[in-house]
Amino acid sequence: MFVNDCLNVNEKGHLTIGGCDTLELAKEFGTPLYVMDEDTIRNTCKSYVNSIKTHYDGKGLPMYASKALSCKALVQLADSENMGLDVVSGGEIYTAMKANFPPEKIQFHGNNKTEAELRMALDYNIGKIIVDNLYELELLNKIANEKNKVVKISMRIKPGIDAHTHNFIMTGQIDSKFGFALETGEAMAAVKESLKLSNVDLTELHCHIGSQIFDIDPFVKAAEVMMDFIGQIKRETGHLVTELNLGGGYGIKYTENDNPVPYDNYMAAVSKAVKAKAAENDIPVPFIYMEPGRSVVGEAGITLYTVGGRKEIPNIRTYVSVDGGMTDNIRYALYESEYTVVNAGKADQEPNEKVTVAGKCCESGDLIQKDAPVADVQVGDTLAVLSTGAYNYSMASNYNRNPRPAIVMVKDGKARLIVKRESYDDLVANDLDL
Ligand code: LLP
User: Fold this and answer.
1) Has this prediction a pTM greater than 0.85?
2) Atom of ligand 1 at shortest distance to CA of 247?
3) How far apart are CA 254 and CA 249, in angstroms?
4) Can you point out the beta strands (E) in 134-186?
5) What's the 250 CA to ligand 1 centre distance in angstroms?
6) For the domain 7-30+300-428, what is the CATH superfamily, name and number?
7) Which is the closest atom of ligand 1 to the Cα of 391?
8) Given Cys at both, which of 60, 137, 365, 417 links 288, Cβ 3.0 to 4.6 Å?
9) Is 45 a catalytic residue?
10) Are 7-30+300-428 and 38-294 in the same CATH fold?
11) Is CATH 3.20.20.10 the classification given to domain 38-294?
């Protein structure tokens, strides 16, 4: 009935997640509220780990891309499922360190890592720095030299693959702020430059072609292009890159129109391509990393809101206003992302009307979804927006001084807080008097 496996309907007709009644969750923890289903996240992590065992002799490590949802509990969960971690800022590194995540299993991304962040990464012995540009390469080498270290690096390569996704989340093409371009020779020049430097050790190449991608083909093509590049590096310089990071980007189900491929199918296809290209280029099969973010947490999460108003504009549309909005889910405003909305107390009823779910911010574009089919929405109802586990809390803001919602984790009918709701005191904590 729903797009997400962790959801069900109980005898009262209420939506449940992880065996918990969503109306009870709303009452106990307040709204807006993010709810994450622990089993769904764990099962997805296991499926990534297992697919590398099945298709690639276990010669790889899936790394949770923590930008999708970074908080201590999630990082700890990823660790307990034997995942590595992809971080993209000092804040994400700090969260991982506070969660006692093993630093050697972390890779640090970013197109403008600050000098302070690079120093921090080296001080914490973060496993690998994914170098984005030449300036960063030189700076990293200098800092490593100062600290008397040799740092393992990867290089972010733009493989020139069109990933068929929203323009704003497509990253592998030449016109992108991320990484070194292959076509122009920029990538090879950077590789050669890195080989001259004595405090960096290039062991890996990285690519990430975009996000919310459903086709297998672009992943296979990217893997092939990267393997050919590793072969070319070996032939031109004699240096063997032994690891390949293929990024994240696997699509999830937001609505009935989305048809994600089982993640195992990606690994099956990509493994085959990598092995074939290794033979063709006469190089060993590399150790593989992948960096799923959205697919690990996206479908596991929902957001609960309370309806505070209903406005019927004849012949135009019906607005229902909820107690959150673009502050906890910016994705409609940014990408016009589609979501499934469920009236949580009437989850056993078929949708009988279309409503536009609006947030409470002082901004016309503050919508969660336009013309969403739902069952008979009244003031006081609890609405659930599905598949909000990824890039919702992590992109949340305090616009209009709205406190960020809490996150609860549910499992076997029990719920526990993993991120507290922000208080008004939190909002003014950094303010100083005139
Ligand atoms: N690795 C790298 C280098 C990335 O840049 C990303 C996402 C990932 C892995 C994880 O990709 P995923 O598996 O989650 O698709 N805010 C946007 C998504 C931005 C994705 C940024 N990079 C959204 O809400 O759709």
Assistant:
1) yes
2) 1
3) 15
4) 151-158, 180-181
5) 9
6) Lyase, Ornithine Decarboxylase; Chain A, domain 1 (2.40.37.10)
7) 24
8) 60
9) no
10) no
11) yes
Distance CA 49, CA 44 (A): 9
The pairs formed by 20-27 with CB atoms below 8 angstroms and a separation of 24 or more are 20/410, 20/413, 20/414, 20/415, 22/302, 22/304, 22/344, 22/382, 22/384, 23/344, 23/345, 23/382, 25/304, 25/408, 25/410, 25/415, 26/304, 26/306, 26/344, 26/382
Beta bridge partners of 416: 409
C-alpha angle with apex 390: 82 to 163, nearest 5 degrees?
Answer: 90
- The pair of structure tokens assigned to 64 is 């949770």
Every domain of the chain and the residues it spans: 7-30+300-428, 38-294
Which residues line the pocket of ligand 1, CB cutoff 6 A? 65, 67-68, 86, 109, 169, 208, 211-212, 247-250, 291-295, 331, 391
The rounded distance, in Å, linking the Cα atoms of 112 and 243 is 23
Rounded CA gap, 119 and 122, in Å? 5
For a substitution probing ligand 1, which of 165, 207, 291 has the most ligand atoms within 8 Å of its CB? 291
Q: Ligand 1, closest atom to CA 251?
A: 15
**32: cis peptide before it, omega within 30°?**
yes
